[in-house]
């Protein structure tokens, strides 16, 4: 018996999108470009740059088009953005974004109340977006928020999540993200859901998106890693948050996940020191510390450099 | 294949000792008694009340004797304290403490520099404490700090930890705690060390003590749980800290561990709501928030009561 873990993971830095969109302070495009440059320099293979949604609904993301036009893309790096409708696809096309992510909530009651249709029906309505993106050479992925729990439901039956996965597959979308934006996922549940998804839909290219709202973000990632899941969203400095709980911890912190991977010998291709610089810079631009433990404590290995003489553990 | 976890854990609340001893503000005995009453009411099976060490070295613990004399002990609950030498055993005896914990650092270089002997030799010198405690009807357990890494060593070879375990066993001590006070443990290492310890010393009654310094406290506990380890130290509000890194996150937070156990159906015998009250009170007495995620966010189940209408996840 051994602790079986994957040897390599792919991380997507979502701080520019999910992190910043939950902040009261709106950064300027120049400040975002600085963070984006840092994220690129650190070597992330996937970067979520922003979203093409209404600027009145999410003013923090209003300049996503500008970021795409100003940035110098690196070979082999995927730059994606969140899109809600055909208008968003058109904006993506206009600014040279080549990868979009659609999203639907797994909460049936929430979807019925807001959109008067089930989540699977919502996905079916994405057909126009998929067609338009296909014509423009834009790759499409799909996300399922509230996959592990929602504020509107006692429980999200796994059958509901499977219906959405099948709707995505019917729409020709095979890259799917399970998201826990409300921070309700817990390890044994993550294990059960991920195992079932892996067994039932081996053709899917899975991503997982965890928040650390109740301290379980990394434990959930570790659990999924034991099942061979290898693609995770993380956010610099642990920025982000839970829209229902002001003051709660945010997305799982990039630096904490990278540090764990480095300690365990799991390859990421990302430079932890560079990523930590980005995290510190983000905190400085936002004007407050976020929720990364490693940014506060430094790397375990760095403690050796401090040579704390005479200190005793009592 | 299933996610195999134990069905029941025993948690020791160490906030009154490891939490408070790392705080600048020294609480009064009355304030500590209030927290102790709350911890008892919450139903913890084991409580680390304080330590019998020099009041000049650790002024935060100077009134541990008083707490033992004032408290109303509950049947079936174990009240333990940290002891460094025979004088500490005498203090324990005088105030009615029936369970003590000795400690040695697994860092050979640190021990040689401070005490001019190896950790195993340090344990052997505890013989007088063990004899004295035995004569007074006081149970003795042993702890190994820096078992997963130390600021003074590139690595702590597992052989060194085993030597200390054997020294404890030779001294007649079979209840042993592996401690990560420097917050350097990581899951694959925890797995390797715990597996070896369990296989080589099946007679030992193990405890594990993790800090959340670099965000891995709960992931480490979860990993050990997969090997059947079932006794963990936690600290209210995530109080505590790393003596080498000011501002770092503290011990793994009681509320976060309890919440995870409750979500996963793992029995603790502890009332989470009562424990959360203690955590909030501790933060209020200390005058600052500590590092518990659940204290900030509330329980996942409580989000249902909020019924956040019209909120959408963007």
Query: What class do helices, strands and sheet pairing of chain A give?
Result: alpha/beta
Q: Mean pLDDT of chain A, rounded to whole units?
A: 94
* Multimeric state: homodimer
Q: How much is the radius of gyration of chain A in Å?
A: 19 Å
Q: What percentage of the residues of chain A does DSSP assign to strands (E)?
A: 5-15%
How far apart the termini of chain A lie comes to 36 Å
Protein name (chains A, B): Hydroxymethylglutaryl-CoA lyase
Family (chains A, B): Belongs to the alpha-IPM synthase/homocitrate synthase family. Belongs to the HMG-CoA lyase family.
Pfam families (chains A, B): HMGL-like
InterPro entries (chains A, B): AIPM/Hcit_synth_CS, Aldolase_TIM, HMGL, PYR_CT
Give a brief outline of the structure.
2 copies of one chain form a homodimer. With 314 residues, chain A is of the alpha/beta class.
Report on this model:
Chains A, B: One of its GO terms (biological process) is ketone body biosynthetic process. The structure is a homodimer of 314-residue chains. Mean pLDDT of chain A is 94; it is low at 310-314. Chain A has an 8-stranded parallel beta barrel, surrounded by 8 helices. Chain A is built from 14 helices and 8 strands. The longest helix of chain A is centred in the C-terminal third of the chain and has 15 residues, at 272-286. Chain A starts with 9 loop residues before the first strand and ends in an 8-residue tail after the last helix. With 314 residues, the first copy, chain A, is an alpha/beta fold. Chain A is globular. In chain A, β7 (205-210), α10 (217-226) and β8 (231-234) form a beta-alpha-beta unit. In chain A, α3 packs parallel to α4 (86-95), α4 (86-95) packs parallel to α7 and α6 (119-125) packs parallel to α8. Chains A and B meet through α9, α10, α11, α13 and α14 of A and α9, α10, α11, α13 and α14 of B.
């Amino acid at each position: 018996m051994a602790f079986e873990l994957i040897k390599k993971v792919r991380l997507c830095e979502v701080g520019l999108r999910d992190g910043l969109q939950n902040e009261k302070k709106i950064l300027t495009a120049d400040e975002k470009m600085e963070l984006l440059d840092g994220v690129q320099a650190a070597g992330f293979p996937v970067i979520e740059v922003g979203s093409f949604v209404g600027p009145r609904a999410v003013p923090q993301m209003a300049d996503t088009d500008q970021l795409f036009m100003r940035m110098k893309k690196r070979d082999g790096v995927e730059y994606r953005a969140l899109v809600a409708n055909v208008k968003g696809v058109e904006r993506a096309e206009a600014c040279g974004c080549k990868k979009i992510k659609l999203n639907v909530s797994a909460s049936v009651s929430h979807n019925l109340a807001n959109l008067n249709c089930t989540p699977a029906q919502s996905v079916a309505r994405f057909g126009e977006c998929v067609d338009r993106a296909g014509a423009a050479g834009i790759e499409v992925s799909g996300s399922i928020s509230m996959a592990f729990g929602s504020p509107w439901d006692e429980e999200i039956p796994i059958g509901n999540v499977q219906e959405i996965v099948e709707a995505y597959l019917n729409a020709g979308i095979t890259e799917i993200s399970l998201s826990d934006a409300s921070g309700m996922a817990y390890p044994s549940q993550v294990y059960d859901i991920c195992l079932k998804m892996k067994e039932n839909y081996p053709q899917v290219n899975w991503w997982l998106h965890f928040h650390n709202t109740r301290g379980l973000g990394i434990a959930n990632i570790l659990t999924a890693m034991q099942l061979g899941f290898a693609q995770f969203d993380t956010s610099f400095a642990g920025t982000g948050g839970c829209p229902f709980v002001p003051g709660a911890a945010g997305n799982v912190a990039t630096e904490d996940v990278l540090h764990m991977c480095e300690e365990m010998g799991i390859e990421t291709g990302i430079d932890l020191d560079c990523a930590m610089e980005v995290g510190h810079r983000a905190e400085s631009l936002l004007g407050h510390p976020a929720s990364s433990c490693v940014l506060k404590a430094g790397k375990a290995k760095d403690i050796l450099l401090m040579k704390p003489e005479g200190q005793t553990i009592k």
